[in-house]
Amino acid sequence: MVRTQIQLPDELFARAKKLCAAREISLAELARRGIEYTLSVYAPEADPDWQLPTPRSLGWRGLTDDELKAQGQMTSTEASLS
């Protein structure tokens, strides 16, 4: 186990000590539980080797990729004129 020091504002320290007394636990135990909880809430860092999956064809046979992109970027006014 590693021993460390932290600095707390007076008000936070007083509230923590009150909670420790009520729960009959040490301040160190409260800090451990708080750190464990915080680490469980945040997602682990992403795997640096992970990559997006390779896209696959879904069988679209109507438009080329460029034509499909052009259609998707067309406004409703432009679509009604064509």
Question: Can you characterise this structure?
Answer:
By secondary structure, the chain is mainly α. It has a domain at 10-40. The chain is 54% helix and 0% strand. It has helices at residues 10-23, 27-41, 65-73, 76-81. The radius of gyration is 29 Å and the shape is elongated. It starts with 9 loop residues before the first helix and ends with a helix.
What's this, in brief?
With 82 residues, this protein is mainly alpha-helical. 54% of the residues lie in helices and 0% in strands.
Name its key features.
elongated; 0% strand; 82 residues; 4 helices; mainly alpha
Residues in helix, %: 40-55%
Major β-sheet, in short?
none
Beta-strand residue percentage:
under 5%
As residue ranges, the low-confidence spans are: none
Q: What sequence of helices (H) and strands (E) makes up the elements?
A: HHHH
Write the layout of secondary structure elements.
Blueprint: H1 10-23, H2 27-41, H3 65-73, H4 76-81
